[in-house]
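Posting this for the archive.
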Amino acid sequence: MLNPLQSTFSRRTAIVLLLAWLALFSPRSSSARTPPAQETSAKNDKAPVQTPTPTPTPADANSASELSTRDNPATFKVRVNLVLVRVVVRDTQGKVVTGLKKEDFQLTDNRKPQIISTFSVETPESHKLAVNTAAATAESGGEPSPPASQVAPLPQRFVAVMFDDTNMLLQDTTFVRDAASRLFGALAPTDRVAMFSTSGQVTQDFTQDHESLKNALFGIVPRPVTGGGFHDCPDVSYYQADLIVNRHDSQALAVAAEDALACAFNNDPRMTAQAQQLAQNASQRAASSGDTQTEYVYRHLEEVIRRISVMPGQRILALVSPGFILTTMTMESSDLVDRANRANIVINTIDARGLYTPDLLGDIADPPHDSQRTVGYKSSYRVASQMAQADILAQLADGTGGTFFHNRNDVDEGLREAVAAPAVSYLIGFSPQNLKIDGRYHTLKVAMASKQKYAVQARHGYYAPRSISDPAEAAKQEIQEALFSQDEIRDLPVELQTQFFKKDEAQARLAVLTHVDVKGIRFRKNAGRNLDNLTVATAIFDENGNFVTGGEKIVEMRLLDKTFDRLSHSGFTLKSSFDIKPGTYLVRLVVRDAEGSQMAARNGAVNIPF
């Protein structure tokens, strides 16, 4: 028999064991806990976590209903339409002008003055990675992180060299291959270079391996989409076909009909009507073939711009091309400029023909078949075509703050200049007032407010959108563009910290800690609660700028006033963990709130030793 004291002790022991059992096996709440900002994960926590888990300070029982996370995307408010214009200002000696401010510029849209709402100064230094330290503490059982001085330098500049092998002639490719082979010695250790071609046959992704880049150069040979060496009857060039089909030029049609009469009917005047029909058909084929080749080039340009857009640093596209004729794709060219400006890509163009004089007789390796009566007209068309080919190269460079390198034989010097952005450029933005969603072209003009005799280089216009974007999709796009940028945004008070521990020689766990200051967030008050949602997106890039892994989480905040006051003093910390291999990584963090449509973006770097 147990005495009363033993019986009481046994009942208490049973109750304690029962409570411990319930605490151990009962499901945990999805609400956030409150460890300190530097708290690390448990030693035996081996499961990979790809999305951040909020860990705020409130400890009361209502925290589950005040702060929680979910994976479903939220619907955001969208910022106003913003048109970005990159401007390079040079003095009378051609030197870039520095030290200008927003007040120094005037901007008009269709001759109507606009208010410049955003302004930033772009320099090579402004894109350098602000290296955060890998945290000096270590997770339980792991090795301590190295100090900041041991963090290896990450790439700062990403240069894509694109060769237009679709339009280049054999002598062009030989010329530019030799010039490009002398480019690699001027590259810095933090530069990454990629090589592409408009035919899609050459694809060397971003690397610092000079041998791989040199090997890629051997693949630069002429690859016309529509074939070469074939002469139709009559022989109508793309330029002449554009005059006939799109501009209804009667003289150009008469020249083609004269050629048709000579090549198909032996100049028999009775066959004039048939010759005109033959000329019209040949012009349609030439226009269609030329449009196909131009569109092919544009699609590969879009792909390369899209590829550069996701690189976390200064972005440059060097287009080496003899140029090509624009006919029906003027809107697409404006879209390319707009996309490049939004992604902070500077497009520098190099005329692959070097220093040349108009060729009256065409390609000596593939001479034209002109009749005596039309050779003069056909020569004038060839000269006009060769001059017009450069227009697109000038347009791409002017519209993105780049440089058009032409009429010079030192293409190697042009390439060296092309891989470097201007010493200073100015990125100004404005929100068009009463913008109609009609797809029409708007003329832009940027001038100096004080009327200095400076040369202002900027895009010449843009096309209005044809439809209104879905708000949720537009917000996702905004987050993605910020995530794959390297610009720091400080609309929201957010700080980034990293720490890691090594599981073994081949695996490590990287923890990304995000501290959010609640005082800087615009909450909406409703029913005694402070409401807002945060989207927290994290991306990890390797030392060549390639995306490795990442995650996104929606943090729902429905804070009572008491909790809001407490968090206003301490803030809260979010933690996201990733299983990665040892190496050097760039960490990119983007936070966006739903109520204020504000964003924060931070960069960090971590070197996990092998």
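The radius of gyration is 31 Å. Confidence is low (pLDDT under 50) at residues 1-63, 71-80, 130-152.
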